[in-house]
């Protein structure tokens, strides 16, 4: 399995109503230095319906400034639809919504 495929398999496991960070996904994929690679993989997501990349945020809980699949506010809209609170500064409370990886 290639790097992107590993990343996609992990992202598929993020539960409804939870988020993960790029670094968290990188660590789970086998290399803590792959946070940017995670970003590249998600930007190239071949199946956004199955690989819910909108559930991935940065290490501070901030959303992507220009979400690749639908534009600027789409990520916030999708997260809110799952009951995740997104603040006015487009961030998520990681203490409340971070996936524990299990």
Features:
102 residues, mainly alpha, Arc Repressor Mutant, subunit A, two-stranded parallel ribbon, 2 strands, 4% strand, globular
Question: Could you explain how this protein is built, in words?
Answer:
The chain has 102 residues and is mainly alpha-helical. It has a single domain, classed as Winged helix-like DNA-binding domain superfamily/Winged helix DNA-binding domain (Arc Repressor Mutant, subunit A), CATH 1.10.10.10. Helix content is 38%, strand content 4%. The protein is built from five helices and two strands; from the N terminus they run H-E-H-H-E-H-H. The chain has helices spanning 3-12, 22-29, 35-43, 74-81, 94-97, and strands at residues 20-21, 56-57. Strands 1-2 form a two-stranded parallel ribbon. The longest helix is centred in the N-terminal third of the chain and has 10 residues, at 3-12.
């Amino acid at each position: 399995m290639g790097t992107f495929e590993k990343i996609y398999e992990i992202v598929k496991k993020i539960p409804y109503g939870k988020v993960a960070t790029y670094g968290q996904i990188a660590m789970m994929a086998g290399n803590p230095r792959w946070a940017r690679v995670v970003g590249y993989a998600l930007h190239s997501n071949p199946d956004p319906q199955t690989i819910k990349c909108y559930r991935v945020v940065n290490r501070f809980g901030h959303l992507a400034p220009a979400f690749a699949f639908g534009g600027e506010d789409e990520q916030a809209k999708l997260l809110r639809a799952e009951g995740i609170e997104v603040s006015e500064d487009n961030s998520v409370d990681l203490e409340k919504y971070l996936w524990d990886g299990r």
